[in-house]
User: Which sequence fits this backbone?
């Protein structure tokens, strides 16, 4: 199997290494707007660097395409791939706006070419365990959900203006995994935001701290908290409380929590510091799933339509935050 990869920044190199490690892959070809960066990525991963990005989106050029370029390039690269009949894996988000995401969804569905969007938490063993526990009845009737996503340190100032904001950039992962684990849709959200750190978040119209209440379509309530400043470490968790049991995702030996109770030493490990180390197995598993999809002709494990639903919740949350009111998802659905 011959795989092309476009975008050789930090996450692109990590994905390239995961692709190159798969036994099904005979050749990996990488490309970037910066040829020197593509050459360095090729050297580090044992790939070959293409002269131009366009060389990877021609019909028959590769068997599958991995897109890890900047967000504004995602729609064009996805559509170029499917126009060539090439299955595509693309890091989230599909596009910078809802309108562009809709356009990509419609084109992809018309083409019939499979596209896998990279929401890696679906491939984390803890979230998969929670997903199955609900379906097996282990938790009983689900009563409430709580999700947390907190970065140990904030992104650089230059990143924030084009990020889409905390709810679209960061919490979109929470919205996707909430849908996937529970099997329910979000109907309404009431979100708050605050700025407790550097001024550049507020200057960009963004927030660095968040809290939200989400109502699912069966009446279940979910709560969400987030921060760009969690000095204790990188903290991503989900708690699901049911009529029979409560299950926690992310409660491992490196969770960045400390107990105030005397004689309690859990957790014993050093806290997670950033997303890649915390989710490395999940990133590798999603690439494996994509390659299996291409090889076996199986359905996409996370479609553009799935990604759209998570983005709509993020849009509603950000609108709620700005207008200080509950927002139904129907208000932001085109």
Assistant:
């Amino acid at each position: 199997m011959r795989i092309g990869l476009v975008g050789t920044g930090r996450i692109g190199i990590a994905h390239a290494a995961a692709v190159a490690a798969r036994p099904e892959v005979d050749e990996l070809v990488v490309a970037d707007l910066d040829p020197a960066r593509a050459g360095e990525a090729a050297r580090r991963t044992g790939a070959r660097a293409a002269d131009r990005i366009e060389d990877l989106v021609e019909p028959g050029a590769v068997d599958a395409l991995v897109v890890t370029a900047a967000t504004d390039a995602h729609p064009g690269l996805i559509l170029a791939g499917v126009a060539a009949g090439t299955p595509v894996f693309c890091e989230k988000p599909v596009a910078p706006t809802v309108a562009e995401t809709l356009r990509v969804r419609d084109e992809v569905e018309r083409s019939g070419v499979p596209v896998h969007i990279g929401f890696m938490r679906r491939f984390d063993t803890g979230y998969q365990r929670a997903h199955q526990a609900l379906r097996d009845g282990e938790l009983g009737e689900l009563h409430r959900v709580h999700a947390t996503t907190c970065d140990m340190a904030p992104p650089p100032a230059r990143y924030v203006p084009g990020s889409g904001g905390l709810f679209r950039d960061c919490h979109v992962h929470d919205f996707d995994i909430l849908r996937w684990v529970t099997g329910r849709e979000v109907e309404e959200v009431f979100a708050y935001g605050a700025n407790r750190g550097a001024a550049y978040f507020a200057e960009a119209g963004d927030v660095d701290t968040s809290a939200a209440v989400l109502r699912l379509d069966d009446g279940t309530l979910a709560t969400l908290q987030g921060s760009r400043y969690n000095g204790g470490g990188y903290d991503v968790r989900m708690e699901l409380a049911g009529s029979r049991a409560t299950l926690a995702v992310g409660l491992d030996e490196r969770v960045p929590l400390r107990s105030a109770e005397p004689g309690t030493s859990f957790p014993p490990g050093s806290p997670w510091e950033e997303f890649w180390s915390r989710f490395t197995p999940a990133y590798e598993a999603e690439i494996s799933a994509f390659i299996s999809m291409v090889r076996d002709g199986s359905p996409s494990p996370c479609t553009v339509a799935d990604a759209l639903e998570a983005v709509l919740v993020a849009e509603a949350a950000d609108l709620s935050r700005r207008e200080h009111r509950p927002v139904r998802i129907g208000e932001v659905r085109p």
About this structure: The longest helix spans residues 275-296.
